[in-house]
Amino acid sequence: xxxxxxxxxxxxxxxxxxxxxxxxxxxxxxxxxxxxxxxxxxxxxxxxxxxxxxxxxxxxxxxxxxxxxxxxxxxxxxxxxxxxxxxxxxxxxxxxxxxxxxxxxxxxxxxxxxxxxxxxxxxxxxxxxxxxxxxxxxxxxxxxxxxxxxxxxxxxxxxxxxx
Length: 163
Hints:
- The chain is α+β, with helices and mostly antiparallel strands.
- The chain is built from 4 helices and 8 strands.
- The protein is elongated, with a radius of gyration of 25 Å.
């Protein structure tokens, strides 16, 4: 009786910078492939190695995303610190930006060194960050557009979250 030769073990593909460990254990019943994440430890057991790989891809995307959202990237680049009630300040290179809240949801950005005011419609501090980042040339147009779309994205009232 001839048996097909086993293929050499191929390393698992890297997902979001993480490489899963999938091991086959004979004594564990039908779910014999053990899936381990290098950060979280054991994630689960599966009948087939392919199912374990797919489960790891989902786990890595949900638990260990590789990149921050566009809005989070801008929040990191443009760090506003509150200096008083309704007033924030941000220093980028040699420029200092002062943000004042003129009314509810209405902001004014002043570039202190040049004694100039940036003319833009801003209703939230995130919009202020986008404007300052664009003015200081820290944020390119694509990132600013993506962040604005993310900021404006509102789920419909009748949307049901899938969990």
